[in-house]
Design brief:
The chain is of the alpha/beta class. The protein contains 13 helices and 15 strands. It has two domains: about 200 residues, Rossmann fold; about 100 residues, Magnesium chelatase subunit I, C-Terminal domain (Helicase, Ruva Protein, domain 3), CATH 1.10.8. The chain is globular and about 75 Å long.
Amino acid sequence: MSGAGAGGEAVLDLGEAAGSAQRLRANVERALWGKPEVVRCAIEAVIAGGHVLLEDVPGVGKTTLAFALARSLDASFRRIQFTSDLLPGDILGSAIPDFDAGTPTGRFVFQRGPIFANVVLADEINRASPRTQSALLEAMGEGSVSVDGTSHRLPDPFLVIATQNPLEHYGTHPLPESQLDRFLMRLRLGYPAPEHEAAVLRDDPAATAVPKLAPVLTTEDVRALRRGAAAVKLDDAVVAYLLALVAETRAHEAIALGASPRGAVALRRAAQARALCDGRDFCIPEDVRELAVAVLAHRIVLDPHGGPRQGSEEVEWLVREIVGRVPVPL
């Protein structure tokens, strides 16, 4: 995917980078039909080095998207079904007695949990207890986990794809703001268009296409794409536009808590990934504008006295309103 630069450092070819992203996108779309923008955003999150929260009603393809993305990468994959009785040790791993030739030695060895994979599907993450949810915080933020006072590095790349149903409340625990802030994007699939739903009924791609998906990128390809995205430039006008959007989320009368500096950094990283996928080494305002809802909406807390609607759709509507009124630089 790259050649050698003057200093011996790998140089990412923009055309190859865009081609790799397109191959990955086409492969995932073989399993999830009619949602090209959602697939595009999920792939850009991977390239930006972030995690993805898929939030929607059951049966619209959240798990299918996660499986298709995992199968498209030549990487280790684990699925964790979150339940109310899941413990942190069930995710991170734990120390177990060391038996040498069947005889206890008095030592303990660390048995790795399912979090030690390149791609981790956290299915129905809001069904786990807050204690278990918080076990993911260090993993998602630092790429490592601490067990019994010892830090263990996770594989590189490391990606969490979490799913949750926002309409079901019985037996669920809403994710706290600190946990939501660790997700680069929150994506909503929505119901398919009638023609796509009819095609799904005929061919059932989740059952027929997903098992046949072959990897199109290696973990080294992903690391190279991430390095390339980090090198994409933002000029002063684009940076000012991004900061203006973030500032408006903090000043809006209906918003109690606006996007944090981490949210601004996340929006920059996502915009850089979009530019790279389009074969550019520079960002344009449209990169920021088109990703603002996916990156910022889940980081915002509405004013509880602002009205009866306090759900995800209301927050996304407010971010779209902000995007619509902040002038786009020429």
